[in-house]
């Protein structure tokens, strides 16, 4: 299957849930931050704290 589909390897950890805490370093792009938050990262380091806080709030806080 690997050779037929021109894969060098299958990295199942990208597709299966993990119990290992992941920490992503220095993310300033809101689209990437959303992707990482959806994947369940424990935290993100950023140079734009206010923007990332807004991104996180929009995703996780119920705005009634």
SSE topology:
Layout: E1 23-24, H1 30-38, E2 43-44, H2 49-60
Parallel strand pairs: 1-2
Helix pairs in contact: 1-2
GO biological process, one term: lipid metabolic process
GO molecular function, one term: phosphoric diester hydrolase activity
Protein name: Glycerophosphoryl diester phosphodiesterase
Quick recap of the structure?
With 64 residues, this protein is mainly α. The chain has two helices and two strands.
Structure description:
- The chain has 64 residues and is mainly α.
- The chain has a domain at 17-60.
- The protein is built from two helices and two strands.
- A two-stranded parallel sheet has the order 1-2.
- The protein is elongated, with a radius of gyration of 16 Å.
Question: Radius of gyration in whole Å, from Cα?
Answer: 16 Å
Overall shape: it is: elongated
- Sheet-strand content, in percent, reads 5-15%
State the oligomer. Answer: single chain
Distance between the termini: 49 Å
Pairing-aware structural class of the strands and helices? mainly alpha
Q: Tell me about the biggest sheet?
A: 2 strands, parallel
* Spatial strand sequence of the major β-sheet: 1-2
User: Percentage of helical residues?
Assistant: 25-40%
What is the N-to-C order of secondary-structure elements (H for helix, E for strand)?
Answer: EHEH
pLDDT average, as an integer?
77
Report the total helices: 2
Unreliable spans: none
Organism: Lactobacillus helveticus (Lactobacillus suntoryeus)
GO molecular function: phosphoric diester hydrolase activity
InterPro entries: PLC-like_Pdiesterase_TIM-brl
Protein name: Glycerophosphoryl diester phosphodiesterase
